[in-house]
Amino acid sequence: MLDADRRVGDKNAKAGAASTKRPRLSRNVLALSAVSLLNDVSTEMIYPLLPLFLSSVLGVSAGFVGAIEGAAESTAALLKLASGWWSDRVARRKPLVVLGYGLASVVRPLVAIAQSATQVLLIRMTDRVGKGVRTTPRDALLAESTDITSRGRAFGFHAAADNFGAVLGPLLAFGILALWHTSLRLLFWLSAIPAAIAFIVLVVFVTDVPRHGVSDASAPGTATSASRMRLGGGMPARFWAYLGVVLLFTLGNSTDAFLLLRARQLGVPVVLAPVLWAVLNLVKSATGTYGGALSDRVGRRPLIIGGWTLYAAVYAAFALATETWAAWALFAVYGVFYGMTEGTEKAFVVDLVPGMRKGTALGWYNLAIGLGALPASLAFGMVWDRFGAPAAFLMGAGLAVAATVGMMLVGETVVGARASA
Fold first, then answer.
1. Nearest to 80 by CA among 352, 338, 370
2. Structure confidence by residue, pLDDT tens digits, 275-295
3. Could you give the count of Cα atoms lying within 13 Å of 105 in the half-sphere of its Cβ?
4. Residue 62: pLDDT band by 50, 70, 90 thresholds?
5. Is residue 243 part of a domain?
6. Are 42 and 191 spatial neighbours (Cβ–Cβ below 8 Å)?
C-alpha cells in the first residue's frame, strides 16, 4: 500500500514538474521567425549601405537621408493600423501577411537601378507599404499562436530571429564586397534571393489560427460589430497613456541610419559599415529572447523603463564620443536596448487590451511609432546639418529621458492575470 502511494506521489510530482515547464514555441512562431530572419537578411544586405550610397553615390545631405527614412516609416505605420484593424474583422490574417512580404520582396532590390534620391524614396516607401500591410497581422498571429504565460518570450524569440537575420545580411554583404569586389548595385540585386526563400517558407509553413466568433461579431447591427468597427473602440485608458509615452520616446528615436553616419565621422571605414551593423544586430539577437522572457517574469514596465534609460545614455555617449573604438562599443550596448524592449513593448500592448482587439491595438502602437518617425528623423537631420551631430544626439537623449519619466506613471499589467481571447 505504501509502495502504491509512493508511486502515485512520484507520478503526481512528475506531472507537477512537467506543468511548470515553459510551453514549447508553436510551429507558427518558429515559421514566422524563420520568415523574418530570411527577410531581414535581404533587407540588411541593403540598409546599412543605403545612407552611404545616398551620400557618396547620389550626393544627398543628412537631412534628406532623414526625410527618406522618416517618410518610409510613417507610410508603413499608417498601413499597420489599417491592416491590423482589418485583420481583426476578417477570419484570416495570413493573406495580408503574404501580400505584405510579397510586395516588399519584389520592389526592394530595385534600389539597384535608382539614379536619384527621389527614386530611392519611392522604392523605400513602396517597400514600407509592404511592411505596413504585413506587420500588424503577423504580430497578432504571433500572439494568437502563443500561450499567455510565454507571450513575451515568443515576441522576444521572433525579434531575436529577425535581428539574427540582420547579423547575417550585413556580413553577407561585407563578404561579397570584400571578396568579390562587386558594385553596390549588384549587391542590391542579390538581396532578392533570401527574400524569395522567405516568401516560400511563409506560404508553405505558416497557418491561420481559427478565431471563434469573428464572423458573428462582424455581422451588421450587433453591438460587438459597432465596437469593433470603431478604430479606437474598446481600448482602456491605460492603453492610450502607454501610446502617448511611446510617441514621445519615438520623437527622440530617429532612424538608425544616423548612427552609421556618426560611426563614419568617428573613423569607421565604409567597407566595415556592414560589420558594425552586424555587431549591433548580433547583440539584439542574443538578448531578445531573454529580454522578452524576463518581462514574463518581472513585468513589462521595468524592462521598458530600463531599456529607454539605456537608450538615453547611449545617445548621450554618441554625442560625446571622439574615438573610433567608441562607435563599436556603443553599437554593441545599443543592441542591449533593443533586446530589453523590442519584444516587451509589443507584449505589453497585447496585455493591455481585450483579446479580440489585438490586431487593432498593435496597429495603433505601430502608428504611434510611425507618426513620430518622420518628425524625429527630419528634426534630427536638421539639427545635425545646422548644429552638428553631438547636438542632435543630445536632443534624442533628452526626449528619451522625458519618455522614461512618463512610462513610470503608466500602471503595470500582471502577466497571465487574464486569458487571451
1. 370
2. 888 888 889 888 988 888 898
3. 22
4. low
5. yes
6. yes
- Given a cut of 80, is residue 231 above it in pLDDT? no
Q: List the grid coordinates of 399.
A: 526626449
- The backbone region for 314, taken as left when phi is positive above 0, alpha when psi lies in -120 to 50, beta otherwise, is alpha
Distance CA 295, CA 304 (A): 9
Which range has the worst mean pLDDT, 70-84, 244-258, 277-291? 70-84
For residue 397, the domain's CATH number is: 1.20.1250.20
More confident residue, 184 or 2: 184
The pTM for the full model equals: 0.72
Are 388 and 369 a contacting pair, CB within 8 Å? no
Under DSSP, the state recorded for 182 is -
Instruction: Render pLDDT for 6-36 as a digit per residue (tens, 0 to 9).
Output: 444 444 444 444 444 566 888 999 999 999 9
All residues at 6 or more sequence positions from 117 whose CB lies less than 8 Å from its CB, including other chains: 54, 58, 60, 64, 68
Establish if 158 belongs to a structural domain. Answer: yes
Please tell me the total count of domains within the chain: 1
* 94 touches 141 (CB < 8 A): yes
CA 291 to chain centre: 14
Q: Which of 120, 109, 108, 141 is nearest to 53 (CA)?
A: 120
Task: Give the three-state DSSP class for 174.
Answer: helix
Q: Is residue 71 part of a domain?
A: yes
Residue 368, domain extent: 27-208+235-407
C-alpha separations of 47 from 41, 52, 65, 169, 260 in Å: 10, 9, 12, 9, 10
Is 228 part of a structural domain of the chain? no
